[in-house]
Design a protein that fits this description.
Number of helices: 3
Shape: elongated
Helix content: 25-40%
Distance between the termini: 28 Å
Order of helices and strands: HEEHH
Strand order of the largest sheet: 1-2
Number of strands: 2
Structural class: alpha+beta
Length: 96
């Protein structure tokens, strides 16, 4: 495990804290990134907020309707790989 980055910053009169650029870059926290703030006994933890709010199974159960047929494991694996490639390419494009 690598050593955690450490830096000093100050709280402004408006209650704002500037995160060092090196840390923002490593985390890919661009302007507008929403962060979740958790108070812990040892300090405060900042985490990137999920882009999509969590849902409960009760909210989505049965929404897709009946399924024509069950997929084979090979078809599921192929679908997962297609989606993984799509997300990887999107992530790569977002960084450029």
């Amino acid at each position: 495990m690598t050593k955690a980055a450490s830096a000093r910053t100050r709280v402004s009169s408006k209650g704002q804290v500037i995160l060092p650029k090196a840390i923002r870059d490593r985390r890919n926290w661009t302007p507008g990134t929403e962060l979740t703030v958790e108070e812990r006994p040892e300090g405060v933890l900042l985490k990137a907020s999920p882009r999509i709010a969590p849902t409960k199974i009760e909210e989505v159960f049965g929404r897709l309707g009946p399924v024509d047929r069950a997929l084979t494991i090979e078809e599921m694996d192929a679908a997962v790989m297609v989606e993984a490639r799509r997300r990887h390419l999107r992530k790569t494009d977002d960084r450029n």
